[in-house]
């Protein structure tokens, strides 16, 4: 599978444009193995496009050292931390991490140093560190699951690692081979998983946060010369169903999460901090999250930090599953989003000649630009079937209502607490993640051998 590596040029641009050229140059220095197989795409797709006709000319003599998980140096804690009880306030605080963490340092002179597995603890940064001033930071959100069959699993972790490479490239941080990051994540999960997700807690998970920050102490506004990659495992409360569904407040005209030519497609910290004011106000008014709209036509992008899906009937009576496309690069190519689309196409696509047996009506799967006025019209005409948000944190969360310009759009939930399609996708994915319902051997679930 080809890794994400290079932000694609816009229509009419050439590969000598500034952002693209800078990313390719950084790849050549920091991870030349990725440049050879780099896909000129901003999505986590398996099939690279044709090679561009124009190539940049490079004269770099010696590549820097690449990230190499086989060189990891391990130092185990002498002060093990207690595991919080399920349902405790300590677990729900999202502040308690496991005994160990992984770190790897990068410098512009040497490249990647040998990574370390070490006791969890604070990171030392200069007050002038680039990440503290210029948002030179990116991360991923993943989970380690304790299956109902007793096994530890990751869910499609290769996609997260490839997306993180794309994010680091966009935010001027060093490149790396995604498979090496995955090996480091697996090592940490194998080390701490047995204790922190014991077998008597099936159906529980730990949140995995791979992060890269620019640790360069120089205060100048320039490409960082030092960076730190680290991976931690954090305790989260058990994932419960959203009783009554999620209520969304459509963003106002003075709010904008992402824009064409920006970085909404990358998982960088700068996407999240500016949204917290609006998110806080939404919650004060009784809503769970913001439905982010863009432009005068109120194009739908994301629901909070999750991808947004709607099921409706067209005026001609065709049943569709619709979500925003990735063409303008203002929507994150979520792993849960991608998985839902792939499951829908293999099991529910109305254009398929044959489908596995299902109680659900087949539908057309559509990725396109659409707006809140279309949802409003579908609800008014009785064509709106359901809507849901999808992401690692919220998983598959049914939506019960959208408040837009002073009016409430009621969203049906035929099963009481969810729509039929959201409920089905949630069930299918849970089976893969937790090794149940006949999905124990699914290729998307990577089993971790515990140490």
UniProtKB/TrEMBL annotation:
User: Which top EC class applies here?
Assistant: transferase
Q: Which UniProt keywords apply?
A: Amino-acid biosynthesis, Aminotransferase, Branched-chain amino acid biosynthesis, Pyridoxal phosphate, Transferase
Choose one Gene Ontology CC annotation of this protein and give it: mitochondrion
Q: Which organism is it from?
A: Cucurbitaria berberidis CBS 394.84
GO molecular-function annotation terms?
branched-chain-amino-acid transaminase activity
Which cofactor is recorded for it? pyridoxal 5'-phosphate
Is Amino-acid biosynthesis among this UniProt entry's keywords? yes
Q: Which residues carry this modification: N6-(pyridoxal phosphate)lysine?
A: 267
Q: What is this protein called?
A: Branched-chain-amino-acid aminotransferase
Q: Which residues form a coiled coil?
A: none
List the Pfam families: Aminotran_4
**Enzyme Commission designation:** 2.6.1.42
Concerning InterPro entries, the annotation shows: Aminotrans_IV (IPR001544), Aminotrans_IV_CS (IPR018300), Aminotransferase-like (IPR036038), B_amino_transII (IPR005786), BCAT-like_C (IPR043132), BCAT-like_N (IPR043131)
Its GO biological process annotations read:
L-leucine biosynthetic process; L-valine biosynthetic process
Q: What is catalysed by this protein?
A: L-isoleucine + 2-oxoglutarate = (S)-3-methyl-2-oxopentanoate + L-glutamate; L-valine + 2-oxoglutarate = 3-methyl-2-oxobutanoate + L-glutamate; L-leucine + 2-oxoglutarate = 4-methyl-2-oxopentanoate + L-glutamate
* Superkingdom per UniProt: Eukaryota
Q: Which family does it belong to?
A: Belongs to the class-IV pyridoxal-phosphate-dependent aminotransferase family.
The keyword Transferase is assigned to this record: yes
């Amino acid at each position: 599978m080809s890794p994400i590596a290079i932000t694609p040029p816009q229509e009419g641009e050439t590969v000598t444009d500034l952002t693209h050229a800078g990313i390719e140059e950084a790849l050549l220095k920091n991870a030349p193995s990725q440049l050879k197989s780099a896909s000129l795409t901003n999505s986590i797709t398996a099939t690279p496009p044709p090679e561009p006709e124009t190539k940049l000319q490079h004269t770099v003599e010696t590549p820097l050292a690449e990230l190499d998980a086989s060189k990891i140096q391990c130092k185990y804690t002498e002060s093990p931390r207690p595991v919080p009880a399920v349902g405790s306030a300590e677990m729900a605080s999202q502040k308690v991490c496991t005994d160990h963490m992984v770190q790897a340092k990068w410098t512009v002179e040497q490249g990647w140093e040998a990574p370390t597995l070490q006791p969890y603890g604070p990171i030392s940064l200069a007050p002038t560190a680039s990440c503290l001033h210029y948002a030179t930071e990116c991360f991923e959100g993943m989970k380690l699951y304790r299956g109902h069959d007793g096994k530890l699993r990751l869910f499609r972790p290769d996609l997260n690692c490839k997306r993180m490479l794309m994010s680091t490239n966009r935010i001027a941080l060093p490149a790396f081979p995604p498979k090496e990051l995955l090996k480091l994540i697996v090592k940490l999960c194998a080390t701490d998983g047995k204790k922190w997700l014991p077998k008597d807690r099936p159906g529980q998970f730990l949140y995995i946060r791979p992060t890269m920050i620019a640790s360069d102490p120089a205060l100048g506004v320039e490409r960082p010369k030092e960076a730190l990659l680290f991976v931690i495992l954090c305790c989260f409360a058990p994932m419960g169903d959203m009783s009554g569904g999620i209520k969304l407040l459509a963003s106002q005209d003075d709010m904008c999460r992402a824009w064409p030519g920006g970085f909404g497609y990358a998982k960088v910290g700068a996407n999240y901090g500016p949204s917290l004011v609006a998110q806080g106000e939404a919650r004060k008014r009784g809503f769970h999250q913001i439905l982010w709209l863009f432009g005068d036509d109120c194009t739908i992008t994301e629901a909070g930090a999750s991808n947004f899906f709607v099921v409706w009937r067209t005026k001609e009576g065709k049943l569709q599953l619709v979500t925003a496309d990735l063409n303008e690069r203002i929507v994150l190519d979520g792993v849960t989003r991608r998985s839902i689309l792939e499951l829908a196409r293999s099991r529910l696509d109305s254009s398929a000649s044959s489908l596995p047996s299902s109680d659900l009506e087949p539908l057309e799967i559509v990725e396109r630009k659409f707006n809140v006025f279309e949802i409003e019209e579908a609800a008014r005409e009785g064509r709106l079937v359901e809507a849901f948000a999808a992401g690692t944190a919220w998983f598959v969360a049914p939506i019960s209502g959208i408040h837009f310009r002073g009016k409430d759009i009621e969203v049906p939930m035929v099963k009481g607490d969810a729509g039929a399609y959201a409920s089905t996708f949630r069930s299918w994915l849970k089976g893969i993640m937790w090794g149940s319902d006949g999905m124990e051997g699914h290729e998307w679930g990577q089993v971790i051998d515990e140490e």
